[in-house]
Structures are given as C-alpha cells and as structure tokens.
Design brief:
Distance between the termini: 39 Å
CATH architecture of the largest domain: 2-Layer Sandwich
Helix content: 55-70%
Number of domains: 2
Radius of gyration: 22 Å
Shape: globular
CATH class of the largest domain: Alpha Beta
Number of strands: 5
Structural class: mainly alpha
C-alpha cells in the first residue's frame, strides 16, 4: 500500500551518528516511501543478489527514498537505499539488480564498517531506527547536510559517504561476480553506468548524487566492460524478476506521475494484473471510485491470493471514506500476510476510522512490534491509546515518534508527560526515560 502521506525519517545525530560531526539539530528530512507491495518486490529482486554476496535477505532491507535524483547508497550494513528517481529511470530488472549488487558489494567488502571502526554509535532512546546522519547528504546532496558538519560544512560527511575509486573498482569486481553467481545478466551493470556517463564534466551542483558518491572514470568503465565481457554467456531474462520490477516501477509511477500519463501507458505494463492495478491507482487519484474498484477487483481476480492488491483496495476504500468496507478488505489482506507490518498498520488505521479503537490498538501494537521505525504506525497507535483511555502510553508513543523524526524538544515534552503517568520502573516508564535522556543529551551539545 503506497502511502499518500509519506513517512518522514529524520536523519539526526541521534541515530547511528558521527559524533564528531553531527550537532543536536536535525538535518533535512529524508522521506521514505513505505509501501508493502514495493518493498516486497524489492526484496524479491534483491534476494538472489544478496545471497550471492553472502548476505541474508532477511537482514538487509532495501528501502525506497522519495527523491527524484538518481542515487543508491548504503549507510550501514543492514540497509540499501534506492532513490525513487533511479527506480523510475531504470528499464529492466537486471539493471536494478546490478545497482543492488554494487551496494551489496560495498557491504560485503567492509567499505562502511572500516570507516565506522572508531566512531561511537548511538541509537535513539527507544531503539527507533538505525540510519546514519550522513544519509541526509546522500539523499539531498550538500544542502541536506547544512549545519551538520563542523568546520567545512559538508566535506567531512561527503568524504565519509563517498566511496574511493579503489572501493568502486573492488565493488565492480564483486558485483559482477554476484550477478553471475545469481544467474543475472551482468550487462545491466554497464547499462546503469551508461546512464551516468558524462556527468563528471558537470558542475558538482548539477551532478546526480550517485556520481558524487560513486566516482566513475573512463578507466573504471573500461575495466567494468572487461569484467562483463569475460563473464559467462549472457543469461536470459528471469520472468519473475521482470514481473516484480515492472510491478514496483508501475506502482511507483502510478502514484507519482499524472493519472492521465499512467492511463495512456498502463496497457504496456507487461502484465494484465499490473495494468489493472495501475489503472486503479490512476482512477483513485481522479476520485473515480467506481473505475478504481472495478480495476483493482480485476487485478485481484487474476491474483486472488495476493495480499498486496487487497492492501491497495483497502487503501482506496479508506481514502474514499468507506471505513467499514476497508476493514473487511484489509482483514482479508492481513489473513494472507499476517506478518506484514504495513498491511497491519492499514488495518489498524481502518479500525480507527470505523470507530473500533480497541481492535485498532491490538492490530497496531502487532504492527509496531514488527516495524518500530514506521512513524505513521506510531501516530495511529498513539491515537488508539488515547481513545482507549491510556494517556500515558499515548504520550510515550508520541514521544517515540517525535524522537524518530528528530523533533527532540517535542519528544521531551511528551516523554515528561508519559513519565508522570506511567508506573515507575515499568517497561514503558523506562522507555520514556530513554527518550528523555537522549533529548537532554542532544540539548547539551
């Protein structure tokens, strides 16, 4: 379910920070596009690559950043971030898998870990996430890190984030090996680099962030071509990979491009169910509920056991103010994917809209237990606690949400409220103390 309201994830000095560089003030918010369908598709595409790299697909998450610039980056060993602009620009599953392979190579080769060896890491008080402050520089370039770096503003952050040419060459060699091992045509790696050719001649302010963090030279491109040429024979495209790539890109563009643009192109989506899904999104954005429902129902008819299509139908109904119908559809989606937190979050939200606060609380607690870094789940959970007469927990969850977003003054206010109500020494009381301590430490910097 693509979120109409994007979740904000503030890249602050409190979350896996560079303590020598990051001050108390949060930097520019990097927006994550949290969508169960798209994240599942990225996991399907990334899984064979990650396994080939010796990494676990269950330990390394691939997340989408809401940014039209072309970029992909890592900031720790457990996340690969891909800009929405890059996903929309790529044409094939193999190209996207080549990007994932390259970032996975940086993880496997220890390029981040070595730089972090002498850096004290810090989590937000409630353990709300693990994202490096330098990710702001990756997501938004130099302006994103304004006020963060001490001394030369962004140079230290950029040097931390940017891979050296030696690291790039090492990642190239490893990524081609991973692609071949996974049975993926490595030619996609060349095609990705061709997108960025010529950017080194541009002024830094005009370059895509990928060029600034992944320096490309003629020698490196020549070596990469040699690696691909010496690899095994070209591998035929994987229909399953092509399907999930088309679905992720199709859903993304259906929500980000004009509805008429989507409707003109929907029938070229490569699959009838993806075409119907995209039309459903486009008609929903045009407030044409009848056509939206008929198209999403057509997609569900083709894939009756697909929880993500029902998730989208639930979103359409909920945003069309049909909360009771949305509860029924979200419940069906949750039965098909009972461990998917974003679907559970949608079900909890629908219960809230339908006036079922107690049931919403139960579902949202389960969602938070599986994804404690989703700000929207935390927001809805605080509402559910308030509606069921538990102001202490409502204040605590609100404090944790503000801490996640880098709004530490607001987090401190709500943590103090929670501390005054919750049973002293209890688990929730300790969580409130954690938020207070983190906010106060940041205030002293």
């Amino acid at each position: 379910m693509y979120r109409a309201t994007l979740h904000l994830l503030r890249m602050t000095g409190l979350v896996l920070c560079l303590t020598a560089l990051v001050g108390a003030a949060p930097v520019r918010a990097a927006q994550l596009l949290r969508d169960a369908d798209i994240e599942y598709a990225l996991k399907q595409l990334g899984a064979p690559v990650l396994r080939a790299a010796g990494l676990s697909p269950n330990q390394v998450r691939i997340l989408l950043v809401n940014d039209n610039k072309l970029n992909a980056f890592i900031v720790d060993t457990q996340h690969i971030f891909i800009h929405s602009g890059l996903l929309a620009k790529l044409d094939t599953a193999a190209q996207l898998q080549a990007v994932i392979a390259h970032e996975a190579a940086h993880i496997s080769n220890g390029h981040i870990s070595r730089r972090m060896g002498n850096i004290r890491t810090a989590r937000t008080a409630a353990g709300l996430g693990l994202v490096l402050a330098a990710a702001a520089a990756a997501a938004g370039g130099g302006k994103a890190a304004a006020g963060v770096a001490i001394g030369s503003q962004t140079s230290a952050l950029r040097s931390f984030l940017a891979h050296t040419r030696a690291e790039e060459s090492s990642a190239d060699i490893s990524s081609i090996r991973y692609l071949v091992r996974a049975g993926i045509d490595p030619q996609g790696a060349i095609e990705v680099q061709d997108i960025f050719r010529g950017q080194e001649a541009l002024a830094v302010s005009r370059q895509d962030p990928y060029m600034r963090s992944h320096p490309l030279t003629r020698d490196r491109l020549r070596a990469l071509r040699g690696l691909v040429a010496s690899a095994s024979a070209a591998t035929p495209p994987d229909p399953a990979a092509n399907y999930w790539f088309a679905r992720a890109k199709g859903k993304l563009t259906a929500f980000t491009r004009a509805p008429n643009w989507t409707l003109r192109r929907a029938d070229t989506s490569g699959s009838a169910d993806i075409a119907s899904m995209r039309k459903a999104v486009a008609y929903h954005r045009q407030s044409n509920l009848g056509k939206a429902l008929s198209n999403i129902d057509a997609a569900i008819g083709m894939r009756p056991n697909d929880p993500f299509l029902r998730d989208l139908k639930g979103q359409i109904l909920l945003e069309s103010r049909r909360a009771f119908d949305a509860v029924a559809v979200y419940s069906a989606a949750a039965r098909l994917a009972p461990r998917e937190p974003l679907i559970l979050g949608g079900l909890g939200r629908a219960h809230l809209a339908a006036g079922n606060a107690s049931e919403a609380l139960r579902v949202l607690e389960a969602a938070r237990g599986r994804d404690f870094g989703d700000a929207r789940i935390l927001r809805d959970l605080s509402v559910a606690y308030a509606k069921t007469g538990n102001p202490g927990m409502a204040s605590l969850v609100t404090a944790e949400r503000y801490a996640l977003q880098g709004r530490l003054k607001d987090a401190e206010i709500h943590a103090k409220r929670a501390e005054g109500v919750l049973a002293r020494g209890s688990g929730p009381w300790k969580r409130a103390q954690d938020v207070l301590n983190a906010a106060q430490r940041a205030g002293r910097r």
